[in-house]
Inverse folding.
């Protein structure tokens, strides 16, 4: 078997799950990596594992004992309430985990180098840019440069590794449309910031997901299950 | 008390221990961070904890469950023998852990952002450049850019955080000379790639350390203890 092509960062949410289906549809041998970094619940990671099992994609789950460093984010600090409202509101800044994507991409890149994969892909999309600096195109370039420079013996002959974000110009509705065409099983995803039995339907992540399904005139299968 | 000034990456070896003493000598309130990332032994991390206790520097030890991703390095893979010989030989490339410094610096940067420290410091030095791409000045610039771009809401008003390597132009002998002047207790350091009771005296790291002490006409207190 040839080397894996791409290491896909898979949170288990709508975007990254669609990304994994997309990469698998255009190239052989993607692998996926998920992280437990102190999130208040593990429902997304469990969803990621289910999707990988369904797609027969090799999957690593990495435990990062960094929650204690990341006080102040609603995603890792139980003292900070999960904000409700629209995803792009300034209140959503409370969901920022400092330097998260750089940490996760750095580890994914280590694995990629180790198994000779040529790409690390993550699902940053256009809706993220306003609130997450580490989802912007500028960051993508900078993090790629750091990985290449940091791992090339000879800078005139750099390692062939790139960090890519194929959805960086897409809206969540675009991603969902693509995913529906690819046959993504969205029952095996988790988006809600809270880790209850059913999605809360009120947090920014739930609202953004619901909008995308509405735009396509579809029902979210995860919400149907919860009725 | 004011915010911590600098997050120091502290492996517990000669270089980073000297760096912590150095930073503490020129500014108030450094803090230190060490990692267990699948090294075959934990003697360096234990040394780091002892130095921080002695200096009364706040210290975090972070467990990173990434050893399984990093096959092929003598520092994390028990199937790869620890190379003997001189530190700058090409055999020392077997001690490279893919993307290690970017992973560790990314996490240190997350902590720095969280506690409003303005610098992340690590002990890359001139002797490292030949074999570790992630100890070169070019990498330092790239990783700083990635952190700043990835965490600044407004790129016209970037966050005041830099990754620095004060020893990047120094040899190990220079570092040791500085450390001796600063009163570093080198008994509380560990350098050997092996984790036995006493340093092996034969691996590249031991040889490089011994050379530095020889250059200064000094005895390594760690070797005296082992006699």
């Amino acid at each position: 078997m040839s080397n894996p092509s791409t290491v896909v960062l898979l949170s288990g949410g709508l975007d990254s799950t669609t990304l994994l289906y997309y990469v698998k549809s255009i190239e052989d041998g993607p692998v996926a990596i998920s992280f437990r970094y102190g999130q208040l619940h593990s429902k997304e990671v469990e969803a990621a594992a289910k999707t990988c099992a369904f797609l027969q994609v090799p999957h690593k789950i990495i435990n990062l004992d960094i929650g204690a460093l990341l006080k102040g984010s609603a995603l890792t600090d139980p003292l900070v309430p999960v904000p409700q409202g629209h995803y792009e509101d300034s209140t959503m800044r409370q969901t920022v985990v400092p330097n998260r994507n750089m940490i996760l991409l750095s580890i994914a890149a280590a694995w990629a180098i180790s198994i000779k994969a040529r790409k690390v892909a993550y699902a940053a999309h256009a809706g993220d840019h306003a609130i997450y600096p580490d989802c912007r195109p500028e960051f993508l370039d900078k993090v790629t440069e750091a990985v290449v420079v940091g791992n090339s013996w000879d800078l005139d002959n750099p390692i062939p590794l790139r960090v890519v974000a194929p959805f960086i110009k897409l809206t969540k509705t675009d991603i969902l449309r693509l995913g529906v065409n690819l046959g993504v099983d969205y029952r095996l995803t988790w988006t809600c910031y809270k880790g209850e039995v059913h999605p809360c339907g009120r947090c920014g992540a739930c609202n953004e997901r619901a909008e995308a399904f509405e735009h396509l005139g579809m029902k979210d299968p995860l919400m149907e299950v919860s009725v």
Remarks:
- Residues 100-115 of chain A form the longest helix (16 residues).
- The first strand of chain A starts at residue 6 and ends at 9.
